[in-house]
Design a protein that fits this description.
Among the domains are: about 90 residues, no CATH class; about 140 residues, no CATH class; about 80 residues, no CATH class. Helices cover about 40% and strands about 10% of the residues. The chain is built from twelve helices and ten strands. The N and C termini lie far apart (about 125 Å). The strands form two sheets. The chain has an eight-stranded mixed β-sheet with strand order 7-1-4-3-2-6-5-8, with no helix packed on it. Strands 9-10 form a two-stranded antiparallel ribbon. This is Mammalian cell entry protein. InterPro entries: Mce, Mce/MlaD, Mce_C, MlaD_Phospholipid_Transporter. It comes from Mycolicibacterium aromaticivorans JS19b1 = JCM 16368. Keywords: Membrane, Transmembrane, Transmembrane helix.
Length: about 525
């Protein structure tokens, strides 16, 4: 191990002493820097302390920025010291002692002025400070004012007052008795008055401590009112739009007189659902159990097993299934009535039918133009309802409701329907309609309107439904389609395996292209 030599010990000792001296010196210099370990203090000269105490608040523009630190007499003035935290004020600033609460709590108000900053420990003179008006100030002012009075005039005034008091003695005695009783009541309630004043002092203290929040509340209320004023135009626009919407809804209800009936039906449906709410919940509970069993069955492999209990044999159920799901025939005249279509929306019986044989379109109402502003069919008029069986449009009378003035629920007085009507054509007959609307094995139903051009024939062997009776031998089926004609063209080459000879008319005819 290396040992220290004598010269090294002396050097190390001197270095340690030097370090201690430097630490003490630097520490003393740091403690003398007020920006690091102390807040700068400022002073103001007042003619009177006015009840201000050390620890009272210092405010700028209503906000607390510091506290009063000291009060001491400086000749015929009072020197009050205070701090401002991290803030600074100018040399021309004004100091004023104000009353914060009704119980006499004081606060030092500062009005910053001047462009030159007040240095630390700077003093503002008496000319830049003010004190509140107090009782002895009032007494002094009264004494100063009374020094110029005329004594003889005052004596005469007091004599007149004395004579007046003598004349009003009965009433004044009663008033003094009332004052005495009031004073006695106050004396008996002395403790309660003390408690009241103590509570008032607490309330004033709370309000003083919450003054910043109260100011912020007032500012926020002002901001809210300003925002409401700015949004006044938007609110007016919203109300106007609501009025327009209500007008549109009114027109919608007037244009759809059956809407009330629809709403009544919806109400009935909702009442039924509410009535059977328990049944629906039971169904869902039962379905959940069934779904659990079904999930177990499906999870048993790539196939699943289903067991339906109490199901009748297939041979008994099949006729009922066929009757329920087979293709149904459609009565073209009753179809539109069953759909609840208004009379003016029925197909034009003298119009051109669709290429596929469907009924012609309905006439277009004249409305929404300068010449025909509309509505073409007024609400509640006869043409706005589904026609009765004897009011269905025909070739001879394309729009029977146009000549009626009495509606189902009122009238007369309805305007005529502004709907273009085709010319009556009693000689026009009926022609087969859409083939798919026929009963199975029967021809399509006949409908009104100008027949469409015949459909192009399908490819050979295609399975089609004829729109009219086909030529050929009569059969038990009116719409029977004959078998396709024989193929014309070269005989195809034989395929592999045994060959079957052709039968009957289906044998191909050799046109010279085969051997």
């Amino acid at each position: 191990m290396r040992t220290l030599e004598g010269s090294n010990r002396i050097r190390n000792g001197l270095a340690g002493m030097l370090i201690v001296i430097l630490v003490i010196g630097v520490g003393q210099s740091f403690s003398g820097i007020p920006q690091l370990f102390a807040q700068p203090a400022y002073y103001g000269q007042f003619t009177d302390s006015a009840g201000l105490n050390a620890g009272d608040k210092v405010r700028i523009a209503g906000m607390d920025v510091g506290t009063v630190k000291s009060l001491k007499i400086d000749g015929d003035k009072v020197l009050i010291g205070f701090d401002l935290g991290a803030r600074q004020i100018g040399t021309e600033s004004r100091l004023a002692i104000r009353t914060e609460t009704i119980l006499g709590k004081r606060v030092l108000e500062i009005e910053p002025r001047g462009s030159k900053l007040l240095r630390a420990s700077g003093v503002l003179p008496v000319g830049q400070t003010t004190t509140p008006y107090q009782i002895y100030d009032a007494v002094f002012d009264v004494t100063k004012a009374a020094s110029g009075w005329d004594i003889d005039t005052v004596k005469r005034s007091l004599n007149v007052l004395s004579e007046t008091v003598d004349q009003t003695y009965p009433h004044l005695s009663a008033a003094l008795d009332g004052v005495a009783r009031f004073s006695d009541t106050i004396g008996k309630r002395d403790e309660q008055f003390k408690q009241l004043l103590a509570n008032a002092n607490k309330v004033a203290a709370v309000l003083g401590n919450r003054s910043e929040q109260i100011n912020r509340l007032a500012v926020n209320a002002q901001t809210l009112l300003a925002a409401v004023n700015e949004r006044r135009a938007e609110v007016d626009s919203l109300l106007s739009n609501i009025s327009l919407i209500s007008q549109q809804f009114t027109g919608f209800v007037n244009d759809n007189p059956n809407l009330n009936h629809v709403l009544e039906q919806l109400k009935t449906i909702s009442n039924v659902l509410v009535k059977h709410k328990t049944d629906l919940s039971d169904v869902l509970i039962t379905a959940s159990k069934f779904m659990g069993a079904l999930a177990e069955a499906i999870g048993s492999g790539p196939y699943f097993k289903v067991l339906v209990v109490n199901l009748l044999p297939y041979q008994i159920l099949q006729p009922w299934v066929d009757a329920a799901f087979k293709k149904r025939g459609i009565d073209p005249e009753e179809f539109w009535r069953n759909a609840g279509l208004p009379a003016f929306r029925f197909p034009d019986p003298n119009g051109q039918r669709q290429p596929n044989g469907a009924p012609p379109p309905a006439p277009t109402p004249l409305e929404g133009t300068p010449d025909h502003p509309g509505p073409a069919v007024g609400p509640g008029s006869p043409c706005s309802y589904t026609p009765p069986p004897d009011g269905i449009p025909t070739n001879a009378n394309p729009l029977p409701c146009a000549g009626l003035t009495q509606g189902p629920f009122g009238g007369p007085g309805y305007p005529n329907a502004d709907v273009p009507i085709s010319a009556p054509n009693p000689a026009a007959g009926y022609a087969p309609g859409v083939p798919s609307a026929a009963f199975p094995g029967e021809l399509s139903p006949s409908i009104q309107g100008v027949p469409a051009p015949p459909l192009a024939p399908g490819p050979p062997g295609a399975r089609t439904v004829p729109v009219a009776p086909t030529p050929g031998p009569a059969t038990d089926i009116p719409g029977y389609a004959p078998p396709p004609n024989a193929l014309v063209g070269p005989i195809p080459p034989p395929g592999p395996g045994p060959q079957v000879p052709p039968v009957g008319d289906l044998a191909p005819v050799d046109q010279g292209g085969g051997a």
